[in-house]
Amino acid sequence: MIKGILLGILLGILLVAGSVYLYFWSGNAPVATTAPPIPFERTLARLGLHSYLDKLPHPAPQVPADEANVIAGAKIYKEQCATCHGLPNEPKSAVAQGMFPAPPELFKGTGVTDDEEWESYWKVENGIRLSGMPRFNGQLTEKQIWQVTVLVKNADKIPESVKKELAAGASTPMEMAMPENPPAKPKKK
Question: What is the pTM of this model?
Answer without folding.
Answer: 0.77
